[in-house]
Amino acid sequence: MTDRELDAAGIGDPALRAAYRHCRALNARHGKTYFLATRLLPVERRPAVHALYGFARWADDIVDCLGPGADTGRRAAALTGLRRSLGEGLRDGHSHEPVVLALADTARRYGIEPALFHDFMSAMSADLTVTDYADYGALRGYMHGSAAVIGLQMLPVLGTVVPREEAAPYAAELGVAFQLSNFLRDVGEDLDRGRVYLPADLLAGHGVDRELLRWSRDTGRHEPRITSALREFEALTRGVYRQALPGLAMLAPVSRPCIRTAFLLYRGILDAVARDGYSVLHRRAVVPRRRRAAVAADGLARAVAARLRAGRSPAPCPPHAPAPGTPCPPAAKEVM
């Protein structure tokens, strides 16, 4: 976290500044796509985004990356400790854990509902015991806590030009779209962790089950039935992106370039998977560097233009929570 970002956000306490820097480092190391997009936000909003994603990254690492010797009991104990620390931080604003300290400060500054963080922790706990999902409805239930709430946490930081409750369903849907892209890209890695996030009924409709996925992963051989199932999951995910798209125009203009860039890069994962022949059981699909650079450059140009216009436009709804029913200026049309 740069001093410029922290100063712009009004974060002066040395312990808080160190906590936010810690969150930024987590995101720079693990969340390269969203870290890149975050650079397009106004400087004063970046620390809050790093706090939100830093916390999510940390909890996810407890579930997936605690260490080769960590059994379910140890992971559950670590999540319980984090949940306890989270509750205390949200209640008192204090914590010995840097990530929780920054998160609690962000939640207070932007009026983010504590329930969103508790729902997220419940989803992380589910990953310790739930290894597959019978259908898309069941998967959506899990993704409320693992993905939709992330979009809802972000919304107060981004700001809107419509009442926040109008933009909320689209923000939640975009969080789901991002996670569905990751599920498709990470089928092989998730299988190695004992989890299958593709709905069982979707797989069964193509004659695919966990055993066939495991066979393909272990042998490196392609199977047309698996490719067909993955293609259907890709189409399903693209539909979620279409549902989320109208929400971009509801965001504060200075925030749109960031989220538009994330939208294009995460959706680009689907293109990369298709271009690689749906070989997600054998290798990780990657958005080409040239494409990432082009999207980032376009996002930067849009961000600069939005900031120049900001002084000549009606103010959007502030990033802090407006009172229910507070009118905002109408949303400008956003062109992808």
Account of the protein in words:
The protein has helices at about 5-10, 15-30, 30-40, 45-65, 70-90, 100-110, 115-125, 135-160, 165-185, 185-190, 200-205, 210-220, 225-245, 255-275, 290-310. Helix 4 (about 45-65) packs across helix 6, helix 7 (about 115-125) packs antiparallel against helix 8 and helix 13 (about 225-245) packs antiparallel against helix 14. It is mostly helical and about 325 residues long. The longest helix has 23 residues, at about 135-160.
Write the layout of secondary structure elements.
Blueprint (H helix, E strand, L loop, with lengths): L2 H6 L5 H17 L1 H7 L7 H19 L7 H21 L5 H13 L3 H13 L9 H23 L5 H22 L1 H6 L7 H5 L5 H10 L4 H21 L11 H20 L13 H22 L26
Helix pairs in contact: 2-3, 2-4, 2-6, 3-14, 4-6, 4-7, 4-8, 5-6, 5-7, 7-8, 8-9, 9-13, 9-14, 13-14, 14-15
Give the tags.
336 residues; Isoprenoid_synthase_dom_sf; mainly alpha; Phytoene/squalene synthase family protein; disordered C terminus; globular
N- and C-termini, Cα separation: 30 Å
- Name the overall outline: globular
Q: Looking at the chains present, what oligomeric state does this protein adopt?
A: single chain
Helix segment tally: 15
Radius of gyration: 20 Å
* Helix residue percentage: 55-70%
Helix/strand order, N-terminal first = HHHHHHHHHHHHHHH
Biggest β-sheet strands, sense, barrel? none
For the secondary structure, the number of strands is 0
Main structural class = mainly alpha
Q: In percent, how much strand structure appears in the residues?
A: under 5%
Mean pLDDT, all residues: 89
Pathway: Carotenoid biosynthesis; phytoene biosynthesis
Protein name: Phytoene/squalene synthase family protein
Keywords: Transferase
Organism: Streptomyces bangladeshensis
